[in-house]
């Protein structure tokens, strides 16, 4: 007796899309972007414990008025060891071990950074991926036993995007402009971010602070199978 083939197709609603870290997702992120060879991989399938601070989380918790090291302190994996009373704080603790620009494992878009990103304004980052554990040597060879932090820069947006923020923080005014778009049928994309924060220091009396950031990102596709990316970032504190 021949049995005709039977096709079983799951309805679209049974395969939800990965969480992207938006407010609607409860700031939950399901994938890791570019952490060494781990590219666009589900967090459940990574051999590491990773906490992702999404862009919406950074923005809605006031992170855009802070340096990267202040944002890291919002992660349960990371504890900042001291405040800006000692200047720019780069050291923190993960797993009870002290980290810093020498001992810690800092990357930008998955590539080892010449300097850590904790001193850069958070406005330039799309999200931050924090790796807990001392097994990061499997990614890039010998490094500290604290863990890792991957700062993922913003990229051009597929649709027109415009955002402007004005506020008052650290005893002075704050401003942030963020625009992006993709043109020429996807052949050219851009992202431009500018931010500034100036005022009195919250930690030391009679001392002023100033911070500025300019970031530009360009995606150029001269061919369907070729993507050229250019990033320019200048930050002062």
Structural overview:
By secondary structure, the protein is mainly beta. The protein is built from three helices and 15 strands. The strands form four sheets. A five-stranded mixed sheet has the order 3-9-10-7-8. A five-stranded antiparallel sheet has the order 11-12-13-14-15, with no helix packed on it. Strands 4-5-6 form a three-stranded antiparallel sheet. The longest helix has 6 residues, at 55-60. The relative contact order is 0.13.
Beta-strand level of the residues, as a percent range? 35-45%
The main sheet comes to:
5 strands, mixed
For the largest sheet, list the strands in their spatial order.
3-9-10-7-8
The 3D shape can be described as globular
Number of strands: 15
Low-confidence stretches: none
Give the helix tally: 3
Element order: H for helix, E for strand:
EEEHHEEEEEEHEEEEEE
Q: What gyration radius follows from the Cα positions, in whole Å?
A: 20 Å
Helix content: under 10%
Mean pLDDT: 79
Helix/sheet category: mainly beta
User: What separation lies between the terminal Cα atoms?
Assistant: 79 Å
Search tags:
237 residues, mainly beta, five-stranded antiparallel sheet, 15 strands
Topology:
Elements: E1 31-35, E2 38-42, E3 49-53, H1 55-60, H2 68-72, E4 78-80, E5 92-94, E6 97-99, E7 106-108, E8 111-112, E9 125-132, H3 137-140, E10 147-153, E11 161-169, E12 172-183, E13 188-200, E14 208-223, E15 226-236
Parallel strand pairs: 7-10
Antiparallel strand pairs: 1-2, 3-9, 4-5, 5-6, 7-8, 9-10, 11-12, 12-13, 13-14, 14-15
